[in-house]
Amino acid sequence: MHASLIQMAVNPDESVNSRRERAASLVAAQRGADLVLLPELWPVGAFDYTAFAEEAEPLQGPTHRIMAKAAAEAGVWLHAGSFVERAEDGTLYNTSLVFSPEGERAAAYRKIHRFGFDKGEAVLMGAGEELVTVALPETILGLATCYDLRFPEQFRGLVDAGAETLVVSAGWPERRRSHWTLLAQARAVENQAYVLAVGSAGTHAGVEQAGHSIVVDPWGEVLAEAGAAEEVLTVEFDPARATTTREQFPALKDRRLGLAQRRLA
């Protein structure tokens, strides 16, 4: 498979509408790829909390329409990153979208783990409740967003649901970039799966972004890594290697679940 990770920058002087059109152009330029990925909350910036409510849109709002059209015009599977969704009950969600090469929505994933502890996304947005996988002709994607990367149980759940390629859309801060790389490799090794993790570039509301989008194979080897600035990271990978890795080194079969817990005095 040929994958293109679009490490897009969020410029505060660029309008959301202009950025949507630019994102569509970047996707269109990847014609010939099998899978294209965009980062987390690229319409507004992952740390621009003040813009969340103002720029929130329904599931099938302008971001959905423009990205569906972009996927169809480029003829690619498109993980369109995430945007601020306003649900019918008014709740905001950090929602990712996946479109088929025909421009049909194949999946929507609401971020499960919200970052911010007692502020920001954690208090402004609702939490997703469902693990989401998407069956492509070549592989099964497992979807995750940014802070999710710190929670291995989510990725185990995705693997149990059949995922062979784990896709992470992020707006990861530069000050914790070492964690980004470490965790991406750890999720790949422990799940014997590919990890395609796309971050954003630039600065979001004063928070410098890490960039450094990364593709890791099922043995934990880094196949490709971007720099800090806006760029498109391209990589060729063999999805079948996840299966052969699991057959050659069947560690997942040795999991022991449901062990009794004992607390010592």
UniProtKB/TrEMBL annotation:
Keywords: Hydrolase. It comes from the Bacteria. Pfam families: CN_hydrolase. Coiled coil: none annotated. GO terms for molecular function: hydrolase activity. InterPro entries: C-N_Hydrolase, C-N_Hydrolase_sf, UPF0012_CS. Residues 1-239 form the CN hydrolase domain. PROSITE patterns: CN_HYDROLASE, UPF0012. The keyword Disulfide bond does not apply. Belongs to the carbon-nitrogen hydrolase superfamily. NIT1/NIT2 family. This is Carbon-nitrogen family hydrolase. It comes from [Kitasatospora] papulosa.
